[in-house]
Design brief:
The protein is of the alpha+beta class. Helices cover 45% and strands 15% of the residues. The protein contains seven helices and four strands. Strands 1-3-4-2 form a four-stranded mixed β-sheet, sandwiched between helices. Helix 3 runs parallel beside helix 6 and helix 4 packs across helix 5. 37% of the residues are buried. The N terminus is likely disordered.
């Protein structure tokens, strides 16, 4: 019996390695913490996992992955935190600022250039707040899906805040800002 187990393990490992090697690169990539308990994860880990899943969706359709942009991430993160802090859920801030205003303030928009911009928002509690559930929800919503699969978008910034815009505290709020090219 031991001999069978010893010989079976390398064979199974070899089959698993061969199966992963045969997959397209995007399917073989594992997004860390995509399904993890959100209460035990950092906002950085949640944001990285969600952006990884977005890029898997793009890559599986022949689109280039979005490059992470720190200025877009600054705009997205600030908006996510603001929505949780002030209890609202909207592309427009309580002070009237639009996502374009926030992206401009973060310094993403270069001089006279007019890049194409977009924004997706989502929040969920418990299992519905995991990166995988959020990205699945976006992909099942035509306007959000259109942003994720827009070929003009080359860069993105994901912002995550713990809490939700309603009465609960166990939620996670995601803001994804897209750009076609701006300042790094």
């Amino acid at each position: 019996m031991r001999t069978c187990l010893r010989s079976a393990v390398p064979l199974l490992l070899l089959v698993a390695v061969a199966a992963v090697a045969a997959m397209p690169a995007s399917a073989a990539t594992v997004c860390a913490s995509a399904d993890g308990p959100t209460a035990q994860m950092s906002t950085v880990a949640l944001a990285n996992s969600a952006l990884c899943l977005v890029n898997q969706e793009r890559s599986s359709r022949g689109l280039k992955p979005l490059k992470s942009n720190r200025r877009l991430a600054k705009a997205a993160g600030g908006h996510a935190r603001d929505m949780v802090t002030h209890g609202y859920f909207s592309h427009e801030s309580t002070n009237g600022a639009t996502f374009v205003d926030r992206i401009r303030k973060a310094g993403y928009l270069p001089g006279r250039a007019l890049p194409t911009l977009g924004e997706d928002l989502a929040w969920g509690s418990g299992e519905l707040g995991t990166p995988r559930e959020i990205v699945t929800g976006w992909m099942n919503s035509p306007p959000h899906r259109a942003n994720i699969l827009e070929p003009k978008f080359k860069e993105a910034g994901m912002g995550v805040a713990l809490g939700d815009p309603g009465a609960g505290a166990d939620g996670v709020l995601y803001t994804l800002d897209f750009g076609s090219g701006g300042r790094k």
